[in-house]
Target: Major facilitator superfamily (MFS) profile domain-containing protein
Amino acid sequence: MPGFLSDLVQYRRLWLMIVVLGIGGTHLSGFQMSVINYASPYVQKFINETWLERYGSALPRETLMLLWSLIVSAYCIGGMAGCLCSGYLAAKFGKSFLQPRAASKRNLVSPFPSPAKTLCLFMTRFCCPASKWSCLRKKCLLLNDVVLIVATLHTGFSRTAKAFEMILAGRFLEGIAAGIHMNAHVQYAGEISPKKLRGFINVTSTVFLALGKAVARILGLRDLLGTEDMWNVLLSFPGWVALIQLLLLPFFPESPSYLLLQKEDKAGCLKAMKQLWGEGNYHTEFDDLMKEKALTKGTKIMNVLEVLRERSVYPQLCTMLLLLLSLQLCGLSAITFYTSEIFSTANLQESIIPYVSLGVSVCELISIMFCSSIIDRFGRRTLLCGGYSLMALILVLLETSLLLSDQFLWLRYCSVILIFLFIIAYGIGPAGVVISVMNEIFTLSTRASAFVIGGIVIWLGLAFTGMIFPFAVMLLGPFCFLIFIAVLLISAVVIYLFLPETKGKSTSEITEKFKTCQFKRKRHQAVEMCAAEEKTFCTRL
Model:
């Protein structure tokens, strides 16, 4: 307890910066993903009324569902566009920091189509002015705040303007901002954290994501903003949060790793460490950064295509894709889909179900916060393997409970308890650890583009799950849980066998771990080939 209090005092400026980063980062993503469900009936009614007032006839139900699907999917489309923009920004300006100014024309060629390139160039004019104190991620977050404010003005005033198209445009702009700030927030938080708190601070991005979902469920209650008169105010809430970050973030310093590795400012790096971490001896962290600088000397910030061509990064990329795919297919979507049905069959009153669902979100938030406090003690691999195994066991019990609930009525109440237990295991395991591992296994030269690849996988996974999962439920019913049980068990085994523990290790040490594992596999294959050749030779003799 005394150690915790001393850290709380010593790193007080760091905690403030984490809060400012979080409320305008993944917190808004969690809010925007969840809030649309609470505004759904009122937005659809608004679209129908607007169409009737314009054209004098009711909107066909098929057309209404198409427009509503466009509004929902516009966020995912914008998210993928935002990821591509963040990749272009990192590659373009990372090169300008690490390479001489007289760059060749070949380095200026972008793999993106001209509209995306034009948008990115427009953004970089404001994100990265040619000043000595500029920082790419910090400026991107500030510009994102402006984009979010514009987006929420569209959704907030759509009802006054009687234009549902403004909601569509607002959701698309919110998606672009989410695609950028999810990458920038996670990387920025990881770069400003000291080694002993790195796991805890990396998990805070997931904590704020869960907090955003909980805030959306609270504000979406019919007692607050989830009403026909206030739905536009509910959708415009992110604009106020973005304004807070826009006003406060400029008062915080850049990350020490940025100042040393990209600006080569040793004094500025040490000054930023003291500003964020308080007075103390930070030679260990500084030496780790110097080692990383020596390893990356002469290298440049890679764009997405260069990372995909770089064979030495394949183990890290495969690890990241495994973690993200297992996170998408862990069964959370199935739990969310069946939650209302399970609560109804447990004879819960209709008016109480929204509050029980809110309890599920609060349970997720608390479990992720608990994960952040134990991740540096138990390690990443232990929490991942244990979390996936426990989630698989709970899904087996839930599958059994759903199949036998008609014969044994008391199993319906067990299903409610199992939902809460699944959310707890999800929060303590993969929800809190995956982002931390992703942030630790990549070097500065590949991290930004790797996060772009990961972000695209996340957004595609959200769109794919939303479209395919309802049909899987219709075909398989409760047996759809069997798919997720298999994914969880396979993921636990693969992670245990191939993921090195990253707790307490620098980026250079983790990279060496991956290289060692890769060398051992190649050596084992070479030994097997030699043994096979000797056997063939002896057979011929």
